[in-house]
Amino acid sequence: MIVTETETKRVVNIHCDGACSGNPGPGGWAAILTIPGKSNKKAISGKSDTTTTNNRMELTAAIEALKALKKPCKVTLFSDSTYVVNTMAKGWKRNANQDLWEELDKLVKVHDITWLWLSRNSTPELSECDRLAKEQVVNS
User: Fold this and answer.
1) How many helices (DSSP H) and strands (DSSP E) are in the chain?
2) Which residues span the domain enclosing 112?
3) Strand 10-20 vs strand 73-79: parallel, antiparallel, or unpaired?
4) Residue (of 33, 43, 39) closest to 12 by Cα position
5) Measured between alpha carbons, how far is 81 from 65 in angstroms, rounded to an integer?
6) How confident is residue 7, by pLDDT bands cut at 50, 70 and 90?
7) Total structural domains in the chain?
């Protein structure tokens, strides 16, 4: 979808996290989507059907959050994963997980995304994502 000059993209903040018990092991992911200035939020989470790695769950959290957006948006994506943030923002080399990088690349073409790293649990949203992702691991 192409956004014309007269349309404005909705601004959305995404906080996301992945978790794994063992590496590899059972994994979970979570994301919280918010609109700045509004109190409502959308939390999504899920788990891997197979043994996975923490990096795959971090990527999955970002992918699933972006897939949840119904229209092209201006996104600030917060993650405690240097793997995800620095690969997208600084061009780190992609040595593994090519299937997920390809899926993420398709979504990046739809949205205007700023990638920001935050330390673990530095915001209430990241803390909640951490808790939700770990719940998914326990329920695997």
Assistant:
1) 4, 5
2) 10-138
3) parallel
4) 33
5) 15
6) low
7) 1
Residues 90-102 have pLDDT tens digits of 999 999 999 999 9
Q: Quick check: is 4 in a domain?
A: no
What whole-number distance in Å separates Cα of residue 17 and Cα of residue 132? 9
- What single letter denotes the amino acid at residue 101? W
Q: What is the pLDDT of residues 27-82, one digit of tens each?
A: 999 999 999 989 889 999 999 999 999 999 999 999 999 999 999 999 999 999 99
Its sign, for the CA torsion 128, 84, 45, 50, is negative
Q: DSSP letters along 75-129, please?
A: EEEEES-HHHHHHHHH-----S-HHHHHHHHHHHTTSEEEEEE--TT-SHHHHHH
> Does 39 reside within a domain?
yes
CATH number, domain containing residue 105:
3.30.420.10
**Domain-located, residue 49:** yes
Q: Tokens 């109190």 correspond to what residue? A: 39
CA proximity to 106, closest of 140, 79, 69, 66: 66
Domain assignment present for 109:
yes
Q: Which residue, among 30, 39, 46, has the nearest Cα to 79 in the 3D structure?
A: 30
